[in-house]
Amino acid sequence: MSNFVDYVKIHCKSGHGGAGSAHLRREKYIPKGGPDGGDGGRGGHVIMRGNAQEWTLLPLRYTRHIKAERGENGAKSQLTGADGADIYIDVPIGTIAKNEEGEIIGEILEDKQEITLMLGGKGGKGNEHFKSSTNQTPRYAQPGMDGEEGFVVFELKILADVGLVGFPNAGKSTLLASVSAAKPKIANYAFTTLTPNLGIVDYRNYKSFVMADIPGIIEGAAEGKGLGHRFLRHIERNSILLFLIPADSESHFQEFKILENELTEYNPELLDKDFIISISKSDLLDEELKKEISAEFPENRKPLFFSGVTGEGLVELKDAVWKKLHG
């Protein structure tokens, strides 16, 4: 999913309310017909709607402005103006909308769910509302109220069964490419993966699970360094985490602890998830070195060894993931 778009900012504007009418009834046999102005219609709302057929925010990427219809003005004979049409923004499940201050307006959790982002302005009252014993023929009506406007930020937290966690160059893209049909960019430099890639991993008996290759973490991500929070945000939605430590790391257990610490700093609940530790690029290791690396880890956190290049250990890795997901 190379076109994955997870962040879009759009200027939104709800519709103005229609003005009330200040009409006075004039009929042939009723010389003092009095006020009969109708109310204005409300302006259209701006509404975010969940759409299970959408997987990314890509359709919104080039949308800069969204504007709902204004309400129609009221008319004589107490006719109320029509409401302005609401405008809908279809987004994938897992999308969060925030205002310009970064406050969350709402989150889409299911298909067809609707969240009103901006309310249309109320229609003004017609002059018939202002008739009284001391003012039989009011010649004024309310104007419609303004709609709301401002920027809305849409963020998508990807939904995947297993999220790959590791430093740049840990071999996440290589693993995803070797176990699924995904074609992520692969190169030997930091942050090749700037947006998440999703792959469907085939398992035994026609079963499958979704794996997400997420942008590489670096120390300080929790403070916003590197890709920072944009990376960590995606991890929140993964069912289990698969830590990847490359075979050529200088200290495998220390690297795992750094990754673990970054997640804890960002959100301690992330470590409540099930996780698997793995050593990637294990085609570089002989059995002696594997034993040495394994000895660095506590008994309850022994790593699995695999190579995305040669395929070594991939079946065992998929078995371990499936067991965590459905065990």
Low-confidence parts = 1-5, 184-194, 218-222, 224-229
Q: From the helix content, strand content and strand pairing, which structural class follows? A: alpha/beta
Largest sheet: 6 strands, mixed
CATH uppermost class of the largest domain: Alpha Beta
Total helical segments: 5
* Counted beta strands: 14
Distance between the termini: 29 Å
**Would you tell me the overall average pLDDT?**
83
* Beta-strand residue percentage: 15-25%
Enzyme class: hydrolase
Domain Obg: 2-159
Subcellular location: Cytoplasm
Organism: Chryseobacterium oleae
Task: Please provide a written account of the structure.
This protein is α/β, with parallel strands linked by helices and 327 residues long. The protein folds into two domains: 1-156, Spo0b-associated Gtp-binding Protein, Chain: A; 160-326, 3-Layer(aba) Sandwich (Rossmann fold). 17% of the residues lie in helices and 24% in strands. The chain has helices at residues 172-179, 228-235, 252-266, 287-296, 314-326; strands spanning 7-13, 46-50, 65-67, 87-91, 95-98, 104-107, 114-118, 149-156, 160-165, 197-202, 208-213, 238-246, 274-280, 304-305. The strands form three sheets. A six-stranded mixed β-sheet has the order 10-11-9-12-13-14, with helices on both faces. Strands 3-1-8-5-6 form a five-stranded mixed β-sheet, with no helix packed on it. A three-stranded mixed β-sheet has the order 4-2-7, with no helix packed on it. The radius of gyration is 29 Å and the shape is rod-shaped. The two termini are 29 Å apart. 41% of the residues are buried. Mean pLDDT is 83; it is low at 1-5, 184-194, 218-222 and 224-229.
